[in-house]
Each structure stands twice: as C-alpha cells, then as structure tokens.
Amino acid sequence: MRTRLAIAALSVLLVATGCGSGASGSSDDRPQVVTAFYPLQFLTQRIGGDQVAITDLTKPGAEPHDVELNPRQVGTISDADLVVYLKGFQPAVDQAVGQEAGDKGFDVGSTVELLAAAESHEHGGEEEGEHAEGGKDPHVWLDPVRFATITDQLGDRLAQADPAHATDHRARAAALHAELDKLNEEYAARLKTCERREIVTSHTAFAYLAARYDLHEVGITGISPEAEASPQRLADVAKEAKETGATTIFFETLVSPKVAETIAKEVGARTAVLDPIEGKTDPNADYFTMMRANLTALTEALGCTS
C-alpha cells in the first residue's frame, strides 16, 4: 500500500513539474517574445525591459537577409506570445510566422509608410526591388522618425501581450521615442550645411536616411547586399563619384569591402564604414552608438560644418 502511495505521489510531482516548465521547456513565466533581427531586438528590449523574455532569430554578426531557421527556432515562434518581424526582409521568418504565429505576429512594416525599392536605388538595373517583398525597401530603422512611430506601436503590442505591465511598457516606449527624437535633431542639425550631399555606398541600404536628411545615395549594388554589380555599374559609380567630388566610398560591417576599395582606388578616395545596423558585431555597441558613429562618418565624408 505504501509503495502504491509513493508511486502515486511521485507521478503527481512529475506531472506538476512538467506543467510548470511550459510548452517550450522553459520555467520562465514572463511573456515570451521572439524578434527577427537586431534593430527589432533592440526596440523590444528597451520597451519590454526585464519584464519580457526575448529570443532573437539572427545570431550576432550574421547577415540577416538570408537567415535560415532550424526546427527549434520554428518551435520558438509557435510558442511565443509575440513575434516581432519585418515582412519582406527575411523570407524564412515570413514563412514561419505565417505558419506558426497566427495573430501573435507583429509586422513592424505595417505601422509606417515604407519606401518603394525603386525609390531607393535609381540606378539599380534588373536587381532593383527583387529582394524586398512587393518592391519595398526594408531598411526603415535607419530613419529615426519612422523608428519612433514603430516604437509607439510596439509599446502598445507589448502592453496587449503583457497587460500586467502595460503601463511600464508604454512608459518605456515613450522614453525611447524621446531619445529617437533627439537623435533625429542631431542628424538634422549636423547634416544641414555640407559641401556635398552624395553618399556612395556598397549596397543601397540608406534610402530612408538619405530621404530624411536631403542626401543622395549612389549604391554600387541594390537592396540585396549579395548582388554583384556589373562592370558597367562599377564604371557608372566611379564616374559619378568623380563628378561629385566624393572623398569617401562607404562599405558596411557584414559585407566584403573589396568592391568599395576598388572604386575608391580608382577615384582617389578613401573608404569608411557606414553601418546599415542590420546586425551587431560589437557587443558593447547599440543602435544609438552605431547611428551616432554613422553620423560622424557622414559629416567627415560630406564636409559638413554645422
């Protein structure tokens, strides 16, 4: 009899322990939020704070455009309380969200007006718009004003997913919005008066930044950083760089600088990093430090005096 009672008690304990671990096997009872890549992870962490548990689908230092998901990551999407992504940027994430997330998916691109890819690279040729779904440019986080709007909407979605801390989420979103407003003011002031307004970049990721601050982007390749520029395109970029007096050819952190270095050598310019902030390679950096580093690089390259 005692043996039967002991077995029964052990069974109850095992069942209770299993239930407490949750569907994903985690004992963390905070809302589970999945983010698709770094800028969205940054927003979610700043707004949710320690009151949410965040899993990011793109490893630090990885190129996010063509991320592939393993079965465990797909399961994480299925178990999440909220999935924060940008439709059209990462096809594998779009597919998993469509199949597993249901109404828990939050497409940040649905909250702001996205630029058409054709607007972002007027010399892009046949590669134009092929990467972004519907011909939209996904690099919206490089415009602090649009990013602030996304911040407000994400604050509301986190409040819905975690009503016990709704006030906290909305308050942090408001504070982050104010920081983004300040960043926008810094950009506008420092880029107001410059000798040049053309920026030559390795791939056309900076259309939102250029549109916001009255710059003209000359991209060596189009929306996709993996696209290869034709010899004619390279010649055209070199010619335009010479004509506009470009002193700097920009390359980015997650893509080889070789093409940018070739053009820089031809036109007698230097190279420098302009970070599209699609991923993070420096663990001590964040969105704001990277955006301000970009601002410094731009003011030096463009001869700004403000």
Secondary structure layout:
Blueprint: H1 2-20, E1 32-35, H2 38-48, E2 53-56, H3 71-79, E3 82-85, H4 91-101, E4 105-107, H5 117-120, H6 144-161, H7 166-190, E5 198-203, H8 207-212, E6 216-221, H9 231-243, E7 248-251, H10 258-267, E8 270-273, H11 287-302
Parallel strand pairs: 1-2, 1-3, 3-4, 5-6, 5-7, 7-8
Helix pairs in contact: 2-6, 2-7, 3-4, 6-7, 9-10
First and last CA, distance: 87 Å
Helix share, percent: 40-55%
The arrangement of helices and strands along the chain is HEHEHEHEHHHEHEHEHEH
Across the major sheet, the strand order is: 2-1-3-4
Largest sheet: 4 strands, parallel
Q: Which parts are unreliable, with pLDDT below 50 for 5 consecutive residues or more? A: 1-25, 119-133
CATH architectural arrangement of the largest domain: 3-Layer(aba) Sandwich
Helix tally equals: 11
Radius of gyration: 23 Å
Describe the structure.
The protein has 306 residues and is of the alpha/beta class. It folds into 2 domains: 30-186, Rossmann fold (3-Layer(aba) Sandwich); 193-302, Rossmann fold (3-Layer(aba) Sandwich). It has helices at residues 2-20, 38-48, 71-79, 91-101, 117-120, 144-161, 166-190, 207-212, 231-243, 258-267, 287-302; strands at 32-35, 53-56, 82-85, 105-107, 198-203, 216-221, 248-251, 270-273. The strands form 2 sheets. Strands 2-1-3-4 form a 4-stranded parallel beta sheet, with helices on both faces. The protein has a 4-stranded parallel beta sheet with strand order 6-5-7-8, sandwiched between helices. Strand 5, helix 8 and strand 6 (216-221) form a beta-alpha-beta unit. Helix 2 (38-48) packs across helix 7, helix 6 (144-161) packs antiparallel against helix 7 and helix 9 (231-243) packs across helix 10. The longest helix has 25 residues, at 166-190. The radius of gyration is 23 Å and the shape is globular. The termini are far apart. The model is unreliable at 1-25 and 119-133 (pLDDT under 50).
